[in-house]
Amino acid sequence: MQIVSGRKGIKQAADHLRSSNIVAFPTETVYGLGGMAYNDDAVAKIFEAKSRPKFNPLIIHVADFQTANRLVDFCPQSLKLAETFWPGPLTIILNRSNNSEVSLLAGAGLKTTAIRMPDNDIALDLICAAGGPIAAPSANKSGRVSPTRAIHVSEEFGDTIPCILDGGPCLLGLESTVIDFSDAIPTILRPGSITKQDIEEVLGKIALDTGKKPRVAPGMMARHYAPSAKLRLNAKTKKRGETLVGFGPEAPRDSINLSPTGNLREAAAKLFFTLRELDKRNIIEAAIMPIPETGLGVAINDRLRRASKK
Ligand code: TXA
Ligand code: MG
Q1: What domains can be seen in the chain, in order of their start residue?
Q2: What is the DSSP string of 177-198?
Q3: Which of 22, 74, 99, 131 is least enclosed, having the fewest CB within 10 Å?
Q4: What average pLDDT does this structure show over 50-56?
């Protein structure tokens, strides 16, 4: 793994991103572990490196408002917040626009997208040099604290990631405030340095749920995409009337194969697309071949189990 910095470092990190690799980069809040937001394979690498047992949706980092406006449907209130606080530590959750090219895996199959414009010149330059928005969670392994220096990232990931773009210590050191506009009442899902008071100064006194009520974790939300098809998991063969979703070289040719070579990263990259595809083809019953319960397979199986419960 290389630690790079300066103009040259931004170019090197952008080259990695354009080749579907992942890189750690600084923001004003904490370091992120980024991949190109439109690239399912790069996004699968992020989940693989984080070693998370579930797909947790990622924040999409943009460098300009036009891009944000293409990816999500702003409402007047969220627009006002973006105008006031961007670039800055405010992540806004909005419905994905119909023509959004953001990886379905980055949104963990949700119909919403979390989006923000970081207030850090290195991050903004990287997005521009890479030529598109960057999907990134904080650059720590699952269950560990967020990194605020390049050294924290290198201690955590070692050679499992190819490149860390060093921008010095993060200015704020606290993750962004996350506000969700996908429900009738805007909800602060995660407090951060932009406070409820800051937000109400812009929007006026609005009903704002500060998330004190217990909320289901994003991965468990009812809005999470589940296909209408009935899914039968760990199927060795298909029964009559079923469509087979295969995995690996043994899968029959007429199945929808998540990865003909049995590669879990490829299967993760195709997972949400495939679940949607079942509905597009009006499939009523699908049999899913076993996915090994290792590495990314744990998150894939978690998602499939939840998608199979009706
Ligand atoms: O400051 C930050 O926000 C940093 C920097 C790198 O931008 N990023 C960060 O990402 O903290 P992460 O993945 O560690 O936290 C993002 C949070 C997660 O709790 C995730 O569940 C939630 O935002 N989130 C992302 N997309 C969501 C969505 N569509 N709906 C609900 N929650 C979402
Ligand atoms: Mg995090």
Answers
A1: 2-208 (3.90.870.10), 230-308 (3.40.50.11030)
A2: EEEE-SSSS-EEEE--SS-HHH
A3: 99
A4: 90
**Measuring CA to CA, how many Å separate 206 from each of 81, 197, 202, 258?**
13, 11, 10, 45
- How confident is the model over 168-183, as pLDDT tens digits? 999 999 999 999 999 8
Q: Is 91 in the pocket of ligand 1 (CB under 6 A)?
A: yes
Question: Residue with structure tokens 């406070």?
Answer: 195
Q: What is the pLDDT of residues 15-36, one digit of tens each?
A: 999 999 999 999 999 999 999 9
Give the phi and the psi of residue 74 in degrees, each rounded to 5.
Answer: -75, 140
Angle, nearest 10°, between helix axes 40-50 and 264-280?
130
The single residue listed with the structure tokens 């009706």 is 310
pLDDT tens-place string over residues 276-287: 899 999 999 999
CA dist 203 and 267 (Å) reads 43
Q: Are strands 23-25 and 32-36 parallel, antiparallel or unpaired?
A: antiparallel
SS3 231: strand
Q: Which atom of ligand 1 is nearest to the CA of 175?
A: 1
User: Which atom of ligand 1 lies closest to the CA of 178?
Assistant: 23
Distance (Å, rounded) from C-alpha 25 to C-alpha 253? 42
The pair of structure tokens assigned to 292 is 């090994």
| Shortest-distance atom of ligand 1 to CA 110 | 29
pLDDT tens, residue by residue, 248-268: 999 999 999 999 999 999 999
Q: Please enumerate in sequence order all residues whose Cβ is within 8 A of that of 184, keeping only pairs 6 or more positions apart, or say none.
A: none
Read off the tokens for 171.
Answer: 């200015």
Q: From the CA of 176, which ligand is nearest?
A: 1
Nearest-CA residue for atom 30 of ligand 1? 218
Q: Which residues surround ligand 2, an ion (CB under 5 A)?
A: 138
